[in-house]
Every structure is written in structure tokens, then in C-alpha cells.
Automatic annotation (TrEMBL), chain A:
Residues 7-438 form the FAD-dependent oxidoreductase 2 FAD-binding domain. One of its GO terms (biological process) is anaerobic respiration. Its cofactor is FAD. PANTHER family: SUCCINATE DEHYDROGENASE 2 FLAVOPROTEIN SUBUNIT (PTHR11632), SUCCINATE DEHYDROGENASE FLAVOPROTEIN SUBUNIT (PTHR11632:SF53). It comes from Mucisphaera calidilacus. Its main location: membrane. Residues 499-626 form the Fumarate reductase/succinate dehydrogenase flavoprotein-like C-terminal domain. The gene is frdA. This is succinate dehydrogenase. InterPro entries: FAD-dep_OxRdtase_2_FAD-bd, FAD/NAD-bd_sf, FRD_SDH_FAD_BS, Fum_R/Succ_DH_flav-like_C_sf, Fum_Rdtase/Succ_DH_flav-like_C, SdhA/FrdA/AprA, Succ_DH/fumarate_Rdtase_cat_sf. The active site is at residue 299. It comes from the Bacteria.
From TrEMBL, chain B:
The lineage of its organism: Bacteria, Pseudomonadati, Planctomycetota, Phycisphaerae, Phycisphaerales. It is an enzyme of class 1 (oxidoreductase). Belongs to the succinate dehydrogenase/fumarate reductase iron-sulfur protein family. It comes from Mucisphaera calidilacus. The gene is frdB. This is succinate dehydrogenase. GO terms for biological process: respiratory electron transport chain; tricarboxylic acid cycle.
Length: 643, 259
């Protein structure tokens, strides 16, 4: 093993690949683990684009500062400001770099990178590559990783599953235990720092827009071994997805960004074909209520409005779907959306360039995740920072960012264990603005990659090479025992069936609307599921590529994570971002302008929950209205009452 | 298109193999028909109910999948004799061929288990053609080169290749154990040769594709382009690379060295 430091990156999506490239570039060898070939990671699914202020946006009055402000406003001020400041200000550099890597960003006639409009902003600031931006970004980083692989600086372990962090007697993370999902071999991999970049947890909700690998199991495993979760209750439900047998397929926000309109028939239960419903008999409910943002209000708002309209009986044919219409757009625009429109046609048989699409909200993104921290740094505001319309910047012109290269950046509560990308709870707060996730993933990898390399090189604690063999053996044995336990089970419960029930329960109780009574019911149900899980029945006891066994193990992790989501959703007695409580419909800053922290309690097998303040050093929290017409009316009423 | 008169149930015949060096065998399962079903949901049903038509309880079949929306490239299979993505193949399209759908693994790659194959060779080929832009590092060096809309559009079409392997499965020249690099890697070489910075490695890419196993082994049967789920312009790429190699060979001949 030698004494040269090594870094392990678990996850080969955008966050993991960006981290691998950055760490390898800093001269530290990387072992890259992924349960699927990295090129097939979930990031490949992203369609719409990636946000950054650029020179064109800037000339229209947009700035990095404003990008930061939109992100904080969108997140209902639950996000920490220094990392968001840094992300927004690095965004243009991130795009430049991707451009240099050869990402085929869409171009204007002059050959410049084109921009599109996305939710939560009145400015065009979203860079895109057709309607498959994630695919192109992932491939660019995959290519650079392959280049380092060819040079021997990155070693890939594809089809290897992360099972747990390897934690030494001092409580530091010094490697991982992983399993080859083909040979089923379980092995220890010591390292001086470990990055988890394992993505979101959509599968916990049964059907979602995510890939089948997005179980959240990796995060749950870190949690079970002492890593804290931050804000696990914050789950983004995307307003527009195509409900399907096996999954809900996303209809990207870019469809609305390019002019797509959401509507329902004005008459409840109207069964006419959409093309037979004249313009004046259509209800463009988002445009009516939010005239400024219209169809481009942030996701939590659009989702709830669609959900409510269906509840009121305005859904198509009285059901749970609304129209998303792009049929009126010019051909050139439709061409820009080709990839997603084809997807719709392929999976439904209808041509959306002719007929409005039928869509409904679906679980989509995990704002919460592993709790992380960072090293803040006060410094002079750079010229790109334009606080003129947001007066709350601290008096002496100083801003609060992160200290570049500090080993504390995006580290979990376990020293040496980092969380990047969607599994990291930072950046998005109460809800994520569309096209900010890709940015946060790549930013984490590139910016905080150096922090990880620095941590690995620092000799502040015992090295991975000093890990006692007995500790390694014990960790491996426990994982083997866990599998043996599952295999020896000869109960009657089918793991796929348990998963279906868990997903339905979670979707029903803990997504768009969170009623306390319903969540308490779900809590009881999950407790029941936990019991059933103890006596499951596997259809496969083979010792080669046993997917049945691997799924059953991940199911156990999903159940534990579900607990944390439910419990934190129950204790957050307010509405904020994606978290909507009918019993507490208002945001309550006094009590809940706080991060929820869930710590796993091995005795009770449930989470212990606490809260932590979110400091607001630069931008003061304000109400989140997006110019809603009703809110304005209410303001007037209040003003009148005050007179 | 929802076809009329669908049966209540139909059969799926799955080719199984317990491991790389194990014998292959077929098993048939019965699946209830649901409108809008795709092949993945059929496999999911079988996995949850792994009992064959003759009442034998068996192991759940193993397969590879990820996105379920035809963009990750994981789920290529041979369905009723045609190679395609199982996530975007609807049962309705496949049933007219009789009341049985046959699902088999691709034949040009080693089987890991059942329908799950090992496509590592494709990723290795990307190393051979130096499938990357040789940037100087991740430092802040400003924007990349400008690009025309037309070039962007062609590069975009090539960049959609998801390394699924369908084209290799269909190509008569690509064999499990020969050296032919196949249309996918050729198209990627063209992709990187088009980029202003990617061009810097053009000669090395062309060298890699000139010898045995390179472009010359392509018989121009055009099967590849017909099966590509992403519509990657493979034959156009092959033609472009042919021209680049010709120019490259002439240059080499006159300059006496790799120029
Ligand atoms: C359909 C869709 C469209 C989207 N469109 C956009 C968009 O337009 N713009 C935007 O900004 N965001 C978008 N998003 C969100 C964005 O795609 C994701 O947040 C982002 O790609 C996550 O990247 P990641 O690197 O964190 O994780 P992922 O890409 O999910 O990668 C996770 C990696 O971890 C590995 N892994 C997981 N568990 C384990 C384990 N136990 N052991 C080993 N490896 C493991 C996986 O193999 C994978 O390599 C979209 C999301 C969806 C679902
Ligand atoms: S070129 Fe097409 S068929 Fe071949 S690997 Fe790429 S996407 Fe698949
Ligand atoms: S043109 Fe024919 S021989 Fe050449 S790569 Fe395509 S299928 Fe193979
Ligand atoms: S599962 Fe990704 S292409 Fe089919």
C-alpha cells in the first residue's frame, strides 16, 4: 500500500467524476467506485440545463449575486449562504471549463453559447445542450476521467457497491467496505479521505423520475454508521412528469422555459379532446395567479397548484393529470426540445407537437442528504458582486464565502468523509431551482475536490496504511453476516412487494401535502414494514450476481432512511419550500429557520432529531411570493386593516 | 398506438445463463397484459413472480438497467430477434409477433448472468481512440472555442451515443473475439476530431484506426445505423473518418513521418 495518500470517490455521476478529475489533477491517486459503469450514472438523465450568469445575461442586468439571491430565495433561506455565494460566483468558470472540455452547448448564430429561461428567474441564464444536457456534461467529465485512467491516476471499480465507511478508533473515515456485485466478493479499501457522491433517494418513494439505482442506500449506510442527515424531509416533487408503469418520466422544465403552457379545461370533468377545447374555455391557472413568472414559478409552487387543481376536480377528465402544451410553439423551438418531445411520443404514442401532453407531479430530487459543513471566510466583495438592489450585504463591503482548499469544505460530521452532489444537503435549502443541481454537483467536485486532496495529504491523524487488520476484518465480517442473515431468512414476504407498499405510503403521506395525521399513520406503517422486512423471502440464493439479495439489502436501507424523512417532516411544524403542512400553512422563521439534523440511534433503530441555526450573513430572509396575485390582494387587505 | 384485442395474458420466453461459463437455457413465464407496459416492467413482474409456466419456482432473472428512459444505455437486449433498449420497447409493439415475446442477451459480449452482459470492451476502445479533449487542466482559462450552429448540431448528434452496444450487436464484422473496434468508437473519434482542441490528437486517433481492427474492417453493410436507438449518424461518421484517413495516409507518405 505504501505511504502515498489515496482518495476514494464513491459515485461516478457528475459530482463523483468532477471530484475524481480534480483530485487526480492535484496529484493524488483516486479509486473510483460505482455500482454501474460511471457513464450510466443517473446524471445522464438531466435534460434541461445548467445555470450560470454569463456575459449576455450580465448585460441584461443579471449577476452572480443575483444568481445567489435567487437560489436563497428559492430555497426559502434554509441554504447556507457562503457555499451558495461561492457556487454562484464559480458558475461562469464551471461553464467555461465544460465548454473547453468539448460539451456541445447550443449555439447562437454567432457561435456563442445560447441561453434559455428556467423556473425561479426572470432572466435567461440556463446553458443547455439540446434537451439532454446531463448526458453531455456527464460524458465530458467521463472522458476526462478516462484520460486520467489511461494515465494510471484514476482506478475504476465499476459494478462495485459501497457498503459502509471504514472508521478507525479515533472516529475518522479511513476507507470503505465494498462489494463486487458480479462475483459478490466483499473487500476493504483503505484510503486517507473518502467522498460519497452517490446521488438521491427517489426509489424510496417507489416510482419517481430517478434511475433505478437512486435508492439512497449509500447515504443510509453512512447514516447508520454515524454520519448525520441534514434536512431529510426536503424532497422535491417535479410538477411535470409522465406517469408510467415502471417509472415516472420527466418532462423537463425546459418545455415551459421555451414557452410551454400548463392548463386544464375551465369546466370540471370536461371530456372533450384537448384540441376541441377553445382557448377561452381553458384555464391557464399558473399564468393567472403568478403573472410575472407564469408557468415558470419554482417547482414547489407549480407542483402544489397542479395538485390542488386536480383535487378541486379540474384534472383532465376529473383525474390526476393536467395539460402541458407545446403544440403552439414555432417549429424551431420544437426542434430545440426534440429529445424530450420524442421521449413523450415514444412512451405514450402521442405526438406532443400536435396534441397537448398529459402530465402530473412526481418525486424528483433530494434536497436533504448527508449533513456537511465548510470553512467560512470573510473577504472583500469582488466586483461581480452587485448588491445594489439587495441592501443587506454587510456594511464594510465584505462578503462571506468559503475558504478555498480548506479540508473542512463539505465534510460530514465524520472527519475524512465528504459528501458531494445530490447526496450533500447544502445549496438548495427548502427547494431547488431547476438547473442548479448540475451546477452544485460539478461545483462540489471541482471546488471541494482540492479540500479532499488536502485532507488526504495532511498528516494530522493516523494514515490509512496504519488501520489495524482486526478492525478491517470485523467490518467485513459484519457485512457478510448481514447478507447471510438475509439469505437464511425463510419468511414469506416478497421484497419487491414490501418496496411497493413503502413507496406508496411515502408518496401518499410525505410529498406534496403533509398532513400530520397521515404522517403518523405512515410512521406506524413503516414500523410494520420494518417487522415484515425481518422475514422476507428471496427467490435467489445463488452466490453470483445475486440482484435479488442486493435489492433486499438496499430495501433495508430505504426503510431506515424513510424513517428519518418521516420523523423530520413530522417535527417541522411549518410550511417552507417543498414542505407543505396544511395545519401550519405559513413559514415560521422564529422556530424553524433551522437545519434539521437526524442522528441514527442504534439502540432504538430510529433517528434522534435536533435543530441547528442557519446564519444569514449576507441576505436577509424575506417572504417568498413570486408576485402571486392573491398575495398582493392580501397585502392590500392588511394595509387597509392597518389604517 | 394501443393495438386492439390484446390478450389478458401472454408469455415471455427468457434466455437464462447462471454465470459466464454456464450453459444457457430458456424459461417461459406468463405475464398479465397491461396497456403501456414496456419490456422492463415485464421483467420486473417476472422478478417479483418468478414461477415458470410449468409451475416451477425459479430465481428472478438478472438484467442491467438504469434510467428507464433510453438515455443511460444499460438495458440493450435482443427482443424477438431485434437488438434494442428494453426500457423503450413497448409490449404493444412486440406482441403482434405471436403471443410470446422472446428476450435474450446480446450475443457479441460475454454474458455475466442471464440478460446482463459485460461491455467493458467498448469503454476500452474509447481509450484506444483517445476519446477526450486534451485540455490543460481544470483551471480558469476562459471560454472554449466558438463553434458554428451547424458544427454544434453534428457534434451533438454524435455526442448522444450512450455506449449501449446495439450497433456492435448488429454489425456483421464485429465478433466476440475479433479485433474490430466497431462503429461506436469510430464515431467517437470523428466527434473529437471535430473539436478545435480535440483536433490536437487527431493524428493519434487516425493512427489507431488505420491498422488491423480499424476502419478497414468495416464492410459498409450499414446495419449499425439502422439499429442505433439514438440515431447517431454512424455511416456519415464512418465516411468522414475514411476521408480523414486517406488525407492522413497521403500526408504520411509525402512527409515520411507522422505529421
Ligand atoms: C429526469 C431528471 C432530469 C434532471 N434534469 C436536471 C436539469 O436539467 N438540470 C439540473 O441542474 N438538474 C437536473 N436533474 C437533477 C440532477 O440530474 C441530479 O441532481 C444530479 O445529476 C445528481 O448527480 P450526482 O453526481 O450527485 O449523482 P448521480 O448522477 O445520481 O450519481 C450517483 C453515483 O453514485 C453511484 N452509487 C450510488 N450508490 C452507490 C453505492 N452504494 N455504491 C457504489 N456506487 C453507488 C452510482 O453508480 C452513480 O455513479 C434532473 C434529475 C432527473 C431525475
Ligand atoms: S452508436 Fe448508437 S447503437 Fe452504437 S453504442 Fe452508440 S448509441 Fe448505441
Ligand atoms: S457499416 Fe456495417 S460493417 Fe461497418 S460498422 Fe456498420 S454494420 Fe459494421
Ligand atoms: S434503462 Fe437506460 S437505456 Fe434503458
Amino acid at each position: 500500500m505504501g505511504t502515498q495518500p489515496r482518495v476514494i470517490v464513491v459515485g461516478g455521476g457528475l459530482a463523483g467524476l468532477a471530484a475524481s478529475v480534480r483530485v487526480a489533477e492535484a496529484g493524488t491517486p483516486v479509486d473510483l467506485f460505482s455500482v454501474v459503469p460511471v457513464k450510466r450514472s443517473h446524471s445522464v438523465c438531466a435534460q434541461g440545463g445548467i445555470n450560470a450568469c454569463n456575459k449576455v445575461a450580465r448585460q441584461q442586468g443579471y449577476s452572480e449575486w443575483q444568481h445567489m439571491d435567487e437560489t436563497l430565495y428559492g430555497g426559502d433561506f434554509l441554504n447556507h449562504q457562503p457555499p451558495v455565494y461561492e457556487m454562484a460566483h464559480w458558475a461562469p468558470k464551471v461553464i467555461d471549463l465544460l465548454d473547453r472540455m468539448g460539451v456541445p452547448f447550443n449555439r447562437t448564430r454567432e457561435g456563442e453559447r445560447d441561453l434559455r429561461l428556467f423556473g425561479g428567474s426572470l432572466f435567461k441564464r440556463t446553458h443547455f445542450s439540446g434537451a439532454s444536457t446531463g448526458q453531455q456534461l456527464l460524458y465530458a467529465l467521463d472522458e476526462q476521467t478516462r484520460r486520467y485512467e489511461a494515465e494510471g491516476k484514476v482506478t475504476k471499480y465499476e459494478f462495485w457497491e459501497f457498503l459502509r465507511p471504514l472508521i478507525n478508533e479515533d472516529g475518522d473515515c479511513k476507507g470503505i467496505i465494498a462489494q463486487d456485485v458480479r462475483t459478490m466478493e466483499i473487500r476493504a479499501f483503505p484510503a486517507d479521505a473518502v467522498v460519497l457522491a452517490t446521488g438521491g433517494n427517489g426509489l424510496m418513494f417507489g416510482k419517481s423520475t430517478m434511475s433505478v439505482i437512486c435508492t439512497g442506500a449509500a447515504a443510509a449506510r453512512a447514516y447508520r454508521h454515524g454520519a448525520w442527515l441534514g434536512n431529510p424531509e426536503f424532497i422535491q416533487v417535479h410538477p411535470t412528469a409522465i406517469p408510467g408503469e415502471d417509472k415516472c418520466r420527466l418532462m423537463s422544465e425546459s418545455a415551459r422555459g421555451e414557452g410551454g403552457r400548463v392548463w386544464v379545461p375551465r369546466k370540471k370533468g370536461d371530456t372533450r379532446h384537448p384540441l376541441e377545447i377553445p382557448e377561452e374555455e381553458r384555464l391557464y391557472f399558473l399564468e393567472e395567479k403568478y403573472p410575472a413568472y407564469g408557468n415558470l414559478v419554482p417547482r414547489d409552487i407549480a407542483t402544489r397548484e397542479i395538485f390542488w387543481k386536480c383535487q378541486e376536480g379540474y384534472g383532465i377528465g376529473g383525474g390526476r393529470m393536467v395539460y402541458l402544451d407545446v403544440s403552439h410553439l414555432p417549429t424551431e423551438t420544437k426542434n430545440k426540445l426534440k429529445a424530450i418531445l420524442e421521449l413523450y411520443e415514444k412512451f405514450t404514442g402521442d405526438d406532443p407537437t400536435e396534441v397537448p401532453m398529459k402530465i402530473f407531479p412526481s418525486v424528483h430530487y433530494t434536497m436533504g442528504g448527508l449533513w456537511t459543513t465548510y470553512q467560512e471566510e470573510w473577504r472583500d466583495a469582488d466586483p461581480a458582486c452587485d448588491p445594489s438592489d439587495r441592501k443587506t450585504i454587510v456594511e464594510d463591503g465584505k462578503i462571506c464565502g468559503m475558504k478555498y482548499g480548506d479540508p473542512k469544505n463539505m465534510v460530514t460530521n465524520i472527519p475524512g468523509l465528504y459528501a458531494f452532489g445530490e447526496v450533500n444537503y447544502q445549496y438548495h435549502g427548502g427547494t431547488r431551482l431547476g438547473a442548479n443541481a448540475l451546477l452544485s454537483c460539478i461545483f462540489d467536485g471541482l471546488y471541494c475536490g482540492l479540500s479532499v486532496a488536502n485532507k488526504a495529504k495532511a498528516d494530522d491523524s493516523s494514515k490509512a496504511a496504519d488501520l489495524p487488520q482486526s478492525l478491517i476484518d470485523k467490518n467485513i465480517q459484519e457485512e457478510k453476516d448481514l447478507l447471510a442473515g438475509l439469505e437464511a431468512n425463510n419468511g414469506t414476504n416478497n421484497p419487491y412487494e414490501i418496496h411497493r407498499v413503502l413507496g406508496e405510503e411515502m408518496t401518499d403521506s410525505c410529498t406534496v401535502i403533509r398532513e400530520e395525521g397521515r404522517m403518523l399513520e405512515a410512521r406506524a406503517k413503516v414500523a410494520e414494514i420494518k417487522e415484515q422486512y425481518k422475514s422476507i423471502k428471496l427467490s435467489d440464493t445463488g452466490s453470483w450476481t445475486n440482484q435479488n439479495l442486493l435489492f433486499a439489502r438496499a430495501l433495508g436501507d430505504m426503510i431506515i432512511y424513510s424513517d428519518a424523512v418521516l420523523e423530520t417532516a413530522i417535527v417541522r411544524k411549518e410550511s417552507r419550500g417543498s414542505h407543505y403542512r396544511p395545519d401550519f400553512p405559513e413559514r415560521n422563521d422564529e422556530q424553524f429557520l433551522k437545519t434539521t439534523i437526524a442522528k441514527y440511534n442504534p439502540q432504538s433503530n430510529t433517528p434522534d432529531i435536533s435543530f441547528e441555526d442557519v446564519p444569514q450573513p449576507m441576505v436577509e430572509p424575506r417572504a417568498r411570493t413570486y408576485g402571486s396575485v392573491e398575495t398582493k390582494k392580501d397585502d392590500k387587505k392588511e394595509a387597509a386593516a392597518a389604517k | 398506438m394501443i393495438a386492439q384485442n390484446k390478450p389478458e395474458k401472454y408469455k415471455v420466453k427468457i434466455k437464462r445463463q447462471d454465470g459466464p461459463s454456464q450453459p444457457a437455457y430458456y424459461q417461459t413465464f406468463e405475464v398479465p397484459y397491461r396497456p403501456g407496459q414496456n419490456i422492463i416492467s415485464v421483467l420486473q413482474y417476472v422478478a417479483a413472480n418468478p414461477t415458470t409456466t410449468d409451475g416451477k419456482e425459479t430465481s428472478s432473472p438478472v438484467w442491467d438497467s438504469g434510467c428507464l428512459e433510453e438515455v443511460c444505455g444499460a438495458c440493450s437486449m435482443v427482443i424477438n430477434g431485434l437488438v434494442r433498449q428494453s426500457c423503450s420497447t413497448l409490449v404493444d409493439e412486440m406482441l403482434p409477433e405471436g403471443n410470446t415475446i422472446t428476450i435474450e442477451p446480446m450475443t457479441k459480449f460475454p454474458v455475466v448472468r442471464d440478460l446482463f452482459v459485460d461491455r467493458q470492451r467498448m469503454f476500452e476502445n474509447l481509450k484506444k481512440v483517445k476519446g477526450w479533449v486534451p485540455i490543460d487542466g481544470t483551471h480558469d482559462l476562459g471560454e472554449g472555442p466558438q463553434e458554428s450552429q451547424a458544427d454544434q448540431e453534428f457534434r451533438y448528434a454524435l455526442s448522444r451515443c450512450m455506449t449501449c452496444g446495439c450497433c456492435l450487436e448488429a454489425c456483421p464484422q464485429f465478433e466476440k473475439d475479433n479485433e474490430f473496434i466497431g462503429p461506436q468508437a469510430i464515431a467517437q473519434a470523428v466527434y473529437f476530431n471535430m473539436h478545435e482542441t480535440g483536433k490536437h490528437l487527431k493524428n493519434e486517433r487516425l493512427d489507431a484506426l488505420m491498422g488491423k481492427g480499424g476502419l478497414n474492417d468495416c464492410g459498409n453493410a450499414q446495419n449499425c445505423v439502422r439499429v442505433c436507438p439514438k440515431g447517431v449518424p454512424l455511416t456519415e461518421a464512418i465516411a468522414r473518418l475514411g476521408r480523414q484517413i486517406t488525407v492522413h495516409a497521403v500526408k504520411e507518405f509525402f512527409m515520411g513521418s507522422k505529421g
